[in-house]
Write a structure and sequence with these properties.
Blueprint lengths: L2 E5 L3 H6 L9 E5 L20 E3 L1 E7 L15 E9 L1 E2 H9 L5 H4 L5 E8 L10 E6 L2 E7 L7 H8 L10 E3 L7 E2 L5 E6 L2 E7 L2
Parallel strand pairs: 1-10
Antiparallel strand pairs: 1-2, 3-6, 3-11, 4-5, 4-10, 5-7, 8-9, 8-12, 12-13
Length: 203
């Protein structure tokens, strides 16, 4: 399993971090060792003082594909879930300033929360999937798939030009605005519409 992440896919998130809109989807990978084991907590790593949460819709690939045409992308997934891409923002800024790759800030162990999945046919409108993140019962992030710069099917097609997609691969589709630092003791809860997809404690 590989985890393919898309950055800068929501205009409001691009603006809040003072980034520039890319001409094409910004893609990076996380290893399988980044996934937090089921029923485990997120433990803030010792090497960062500024870990941010980024809640994202997650697509689970259900068949092998390469060079997938956009019109056929919908055949390559049945389930959509919710997850968190944890980012060591202090390390990321430092690496970006030097022009270095920033995998250390994104792909470290346990930097990836994957919640449960739902069948896409059970969602009212796949073109407008609403999702939220609460931190300590306070709403901090709100998003909708209709606000993506590149929609799910477009992302699958684009990514498949570079990486062969395999069964079980996950695509994190980007985060809306509202990212912020997590601290020990925080409780993070993710929702698609009103359905809770995960609860995660920070330590």
């Amino acid at each position: 399993m590989k985890i393919i992440c898309v950055g800068r896919n929501y205009s409001d998130h691009i603006e809040e971090l003072s980034n520039q809109k890319p001409e094409n989807p910004l893609v990076f990978l996380k290893p399988d060792s980044s996934v937090i084991a089921k029923n485990q907590n997120f433990i803030i790593p010792s090497f960062s003082d500024d870990i941010h949460h980024e809640v994202e819709l997650v697509v689970k690939i259900n068949k092998v594909g390469k060079h997938i045409d956009n019109s056929f992308s919908h055949n390559y997934y049945d389930e959509i879930g919710l997850g968190i891409d944890f980012t060591a923002r202090d390390i990321q800024y430092n690496l970006k300033e030097k022009g270095y790759p920033w995998e250390k800030s994104k792909a470290f162990d346990n930097s990836c929360m994957v919640g449960k999945f739902v069948n896409k046919n059970n969602l009212e409108d796949i073109s407008c999937i609403k999702f939220t993140l609460k931190k300590n019962n306070e709403l901090v992030q709100t998003g909708c798939s209709s606000d993506m710069l590149w929609k799910i099917d477009e992302l699958i097609s684009y990514v498949s030009q570079y990486f062969t997609l395999k069964i079980g691969d996950l695509i994190f589709t980007g985060s809306p605005s509202g990212v912020s630092r997590v601290e020990s003791g925080d409780i993070l809860e993710g929702f698609i519409s009103s359905e809770r997809m995960f609860t995660l404690k920070v330590k």
